[in-house]
Amino acid sequence: MSEHILQDSWARCTPVQRFQRFAAYAATALIVSWALSSLDIVWAWVWDAPEQVWDLLDRMIPPDPTNLPSILEAIWQTINIATIATAFAIVISLPVALIAAQNTTPNRATLWLGRFILVSSRSVNTLIWALLFVAIFGPGIIAGIVAIMFRSIGFLGKLLGEAIEEIDPKPIEALTACGASRLKVILYGIVPQVAPAFFAVAILRWDINLRESTVLGLVGAGGIGVILQGSIDTFNWPETSMVLLTILGLVIFGEFVSSKLRGKIL
Amino acid sequence: MSAMSKSGDSTPVVTDHWKKPPFIENPIIRYGVMLAVFAYLSITLLTLPIDWQRAAEGLERASRIFGGAFPPSFERSGLLIKGFLESFKIAILASVGGVLLSVPLAFMAAKNIAPKSIYLLGRGIIIVARSFHPVIVAILFVKAVGFGPLAGVLTLVVYSIGFVAKLLAERIEEIDFGQVEALKSAGASFIATVAYAILPQIMPRLVGLGIYQLDSNLRASAVVGIVGAGGIGATLANAFGRYDYDFALAITMVIVGVILISEAFSGVIRKRIS
């Protein structure tokens, strides 16, 4: 370190650090060029892309509000999908979180069962769940609700399980020492400690679900996506932009409501 | 129940039973909220267009789908690997492009750096990029630039901007401004100030966000492929559309495995950085 002081010019990095940086840059450039050169891209389309995007935007303006009543009805349906699915997912995720948390699970088998449920629910995307449930229930809002629910269970259960693992064990010991039943231990020892995390996670998931519900319709699972798909397929761009604007409104509404709720509860 | 009604009284009630204090203090609001939730749930649930007959047929269909899906078929593993390689490339390009675009955008959207009008513009771009689900963006790009991985890359660039630029802007707003002032008072140019006072402070967050985004782009690329934006999602959608449920199950299983590995990997790297 002392010889650095003797230098008359200051440099931010030592030569070794500089070498590491350049090595990292070179590796990134190499990977990017590999990806670019081997990816199946039609370059004529790339150079054409800005013009095409502008053309599309140009056709979308101005938005066409003639179909607004049915768009708003679909938005209402979208909100319902997100809310009902979140509500059900909360109810189901509670026991799953309990058995997936190390300190509350009855035994090792249930621990792994809980983890398996969480991982498989979380790793499969909502749209893939929706593809499956549309095949089972047929097109419509039910498939959407079930798909969102299946994806949410993993998210809620994982975060709740982590919250349960972080609780203070003393109230539980106290309750057990008084002879409380298992249900009472959960109700009076665990629930009060995880309630804030629980509400925060549930509100966050509702907000996410609102966004996810907007695309369910693209695979036939109800909501605003059905109208969006229809207007795109018929090249009705003014209506498409109207739908996009209402989706933007819906998302901002969702963020507003969830931040208000968070402020109220936490 | 009787204890609950007494808990609203001003004098402490002497009972031999302890009752948990209610979650919402005011009983009118408490029962009002309960009633509203109950009314909403019952109305929406009752008006759900459930077709029980269709659902019963659905169960039969489900058994056919699951029957067709087992055992998963890895026969066309060439297609599977090709789809995954494409997804990886899409994710890499989109992450690099997204992060590169996010840096200037984050500076635009940081309240303490940018003038008001540029701040509003930056925030607006970020809000729009965040609001639309990648699948919607993908459909629009597929319409604009055609089917294939290019639409996927463009979509995920937009998706990355919405996330990386937002969190990076928040980090820039939290920096220690003393260093910026020191450089400015020593006569440093704007570029030098950014390079020596701001970038070193936000770099760890930027690298962490980039790695997280790579992981999350890989996930998303499995989905945007369903609407024609290339990658493993396209392979999956094709398999599903052709009723090749055994191949679809194989793809899904590999997707789950890859996502788990990439999640663990990015978690380890991010832990080492911070």
UniProtKB/TrEMBL annotation, chain B:
Give the residue spans that cross the bilayer. 28-50, 90-114, 135-162, 182-199, 220-241, 247-269
Cellular compartment(s):
Cell membrane
Q: Which InterPro entries match?
A: MetI-like, MetI-like_sf, PhnE/PtxC
> Which UniProt keywords are present, listed alphabetically?
Cell membrane, Membrane, Transmembrane, Transmembrane helix, Transport
GO molecular function, a single term: ABC-type phosphonate transporter activity
Membrane topology is: Multi-pass membrane protein
Recorded GO cellular component terms are: plasma membrane
Its chief place of residence is membrane
Q: Which domain of life does the protein's organism represent?
A: Bacteria
Pfam families attached here?
BPD_transp_1
Domain ABC transmembrane type-1 per the UniProt entry, residue ranges: 84-266
The record's family statement is: Belongs to the binding-protein-dependent transport system permease family.
Protein name (database record): Phosphonate transport system permease protein
